[in-house]
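Input sequence (233 aa), recorded before submission:
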Amino acid sequence: MAPKPKAVVLLSGGLDSATALAVAHSEGFETYGLTVFYGQRHAAEINASRRVAKQLCACQHVETEIDLRRFGGSALTADIDVPKGRAAEQMAHGIPVTYVPARNTVFLSLALAWAEAISAFDIYVGVNALDYSGYPDCRAEFIQAFEAVANVATKAAVEGLGRFRIHAPLIAQTKAEIIKRGTELGVDYSITSSCYDPDLITHGACGNCDSCQLRARGFAEAGLPDPTRYHTA
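Predicted structure, token format:
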């Protein structure tokens, strides 16, 4: 039997990345999870990524660190309040302060480096352009542009050993559709962490940031119970 092809999956520990890992499994790949600690205030997701990698049987799970706090510019990496209680109309308008400058470009570059090192030509990322805040690096145009860069910037591609493919299987799905798909694939969402501002002691979700609201709405629209553990003051 021929060995399965390898795929590097960016694994934050959140709902979307867990689903992306499950999708990669279902599409026949041997998966390699990559988690990046970048100084984010919601570092509880690092532990969540370990749980997800184990539950979904990633072949290998690597954690790496790059401190984006040195640059700031985001409520996730600087002393800027995380927006709470925003209406859906507000979330759909403009780019929020939780956007981390060039984060997905940095993450995909790290994933590309690991993929080339292990002779993998497929990279999965759980970006979503519908039920989400308007991050520019979650759009199809960005994914297509990065894939083009990957295929002119690497020894493996230039020497014709293979062509890199950036998979964004959730990019055009609603949060409810993502949850339904992940549930069908066996994802245990109770072990994931999506909150931008979890409690530092209990790691419970705040329930009011954009990410918490979108997650809760997704479960409601999917008609499934929300397994999120919320912090109660």
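Checked by second reader. The chain is about 35% helix and 10% strand.
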